[in-house]
Amino acid sequence: MKVTNKHNVPETLVSLARTDYYSKGGADYSVTEIISPPRIQRLRAKHWNDMEQDVSDMLWQLLGSALHVVAERGNHPDYITEERLNAEIDGVRLSGAIDIQRITPDGILITDYKFTSAWALRQDKPDWEAQQNIYAWLVNKSKGKQVVGVQICALIRDWSRREASVKADYPQAPIQVIDLPLWPLNQTETYIRDRIDAHRNSKVAADWEDELPLCTPDDRWVRGDAWAVMLKGRKRASKVFDREQDAKNFVRTLDVNTGPYIEKRPGEPIRCANDFCGVARWCSQYQASLKGEDE
Ligand code: SF4
Known about the structure:
- The chain is an alpha/beta fold and 295 residues long.
- Helix content is 36%, strand content 25%.
- The chain contains eleven helices and 13 strands.
- The protein has helices spanning 11-18, 31-35, 38-47, 59-73, 118-121, 126-143, 161-166, 185-205, 244-252, 270-273, 284-290; strands spanning 2-4, 29-30, 52-54, 79-89, 92-104, 107-116, 147-156, 175-180, 222-223, 226-230, 239-241, 261-265, 268-269.
- The strands form four sheets. Strands 2, 4, 5, 6, 7 and 8 form a six-stranded mixed beta sheet that branches. A three-stranded antiparallel beta sheet has the order 11-10-12, with helices on one face.
- Strand 10 (226-230) and strand 11 (239-241) form a beta hairpin.
- The longest helix is centred in the middle third of the chain and has 21 residues, at 185-205.
- The radius of gyration is 22 Å and the shape is globular.
- It starts with a strand and ends in a 5-residue tail after the last helix.
- The model has no long low-confidence stretch (mean pLDDT 90).
- The site of iron/sulfur cluster has 16 residues, from helix 3, helix 10 and helix 11.
């Protein structure tokens, strides 16, 4: 993949962006790899040499790498930081690097750092849950230790003190620790086997793109329709609602002289529309959906 520098940022940052920190530690699959959609993985492998990203669009990726370095420095006797673990399942070697393991008298508590937005934090995150549970499985298999919990330490990059003061469902601080459900080990093993199968099958299908598995709505980060309450002469929405009825109720509370009206904002697959997967231009599924030919 070519990393460009359209905004003339210091070359040191560009060189960091060009460094590939991604590692499977000699394993067949990494945890990040198996939880990500097979379609994205295969299209990225196929078009890697044609992909291009500007360093200015890689800010959060770079800060994510920086955070792991900083986190490693925070020594504490009860914590293990940045440990890479490996384990085998049905002859396949799986590897994952865990940000933090806290050693408690009852077992290990796993925590992973995530940079995210305030909006994303309020959505379901099935991939976070799956990732942390695979880490729990790795800890159990490779160290024989019991895991007592899995959690995320979310760092909210667009956090607003003002929003926090007016919205009850808005994160109340820029850092949030969120407990995730801990799966039974046999459930995690079934999930791992299913994901490895999906990735193996997609490798076989890679030459025939039409046979690649489709990304699911969760994979595509589909955001549902929204209803924005607008005021006459203003460009920004006064408030945006997930349900039309809530928008109508809000309009009734407003002064009619402000000219309130409701604007429907159709939902969209955020990951495809913003090319967060990096392969939207080559993806027949997304290109078909743009023409209204959803498969
Ligand atoms: S463009 Fe959308 S559907 Fe296609 S690979 Fe990317 S996320 Fe999946």
